[in-house]
Amino acid sequence: GAVVSQHPSWVICKSGTSVKIECRSLDFQATTMFWYRQFPKQSLMLMATSNEGSKATYEQGVEKDKFLINHASLTLSTLTVTSAHPEDSSFYICSARYLQNYGYTFGSGTRLTVV
Amino acid sequence: AQRVTQPEKLLSVFKGAPVELKCNYSYSGSPELFWYVQYSRQRLQLLLRHISRESIKGFTADLNKGETSFHLKKPFAQEEDSAMYYCALSPSYNTDKLIFGTGTRLQVFP
User: Fold this and answer.
1) A33: which of A1, A50, B46, B75 fits an S-S bond (Cβ 3.0–4.6 Å)?
2) Closest residue in chain B to residue A37, using alpha carbons only
3) Of the candidates A97, A103, A106, which has its C-beta nearest B96's C-beta?
4) Does A2 touch chain B (CB under 8 A)?
5) Helix residue ranges, H only, B18-57
6) Between chains, do A104 and B86 touch, taking CB under 8 Å as contact?
7) Which of residues 12-71 of B touch A (CB under 8 A)?
């Protein structure tokens, strides 16, 4: 149990376009989901906390207008990278806290390449 | 500020050797600490949590508040233990937030 599905697994887009990444909890309801960014050979950095039915909470230094987060249901959160630039190229990972084992379950990640 | 430090980027051992992956944290309160593992081409998954005091796949980790450490140990490494290991901290004031260390790649040679 406690599976988070993330889609797409990889995407290539042109500079200036927007990309949407979906994160779904398949067998549990997640009132809170998390979006991380991981640069090559570096750790996961929390970008924002996505709250169902309310505004996301962004970490310091993360542009909320650039990384739009929507959490419209208890099983779906989306991250939209708007007006993407090459420096936005990274590995984006979502996660949700699964209460029964007090751990976080992670999506498989999305590799974004902006050309 | 909260911080998790994993001083080793790479740890290489032979099968059957003991393993210790170091993790130190900086936090003034009482954190919740985790070890996560990422096998090749797989998603990040929980290995163990300090509060549960359990042993998973032969790994154990003890929270040492005096040394602010949470080192991961296994007495006899197996080849299938080769993976990326991340230590993570959840601040007590916000149990939804996870702060990750930079990770240690464990290579177990036959």
Assistant:
1) A50
2) B100
3) A97
4) no
5) none
6) no
7) 34, 42-46, 49, 51-52
Retrieve residue B100's tokens. 């990750």
Average pLDDT over every residue of B20-33: 90
Decide which of B11 and B51 is more confident.
B11
**pLDDT reading at A48 higher than 90:** yes
Tell me: the pLDDT tens digits for B54-67? 778 999 998 998 99
Distances (CA, A) of A60 to A48, A52, A63, A79: 9, 21, 8, 17
Whether residue A21 is predicted with pLDDT greater than 60 in this model: the reply is yes
Q: CB distance A104–B98 less than 8 Å?
A: yes
> Tokens 């970008």 identify what position?
A47
Residue A45: its chain B contacts at CB < 8 A?
100
The residue among A10, A102, A93 whose CA lies nearest residue B53 is A102
Nearest CB neighbour to B100, from listed A41, A43, A107: A43
Please report which residue ranges of chain B form alpha helices under DSSP H: none
pLDDT at position B94 is: 60
CB of A5 closer than 8 Å to CB of A72: no
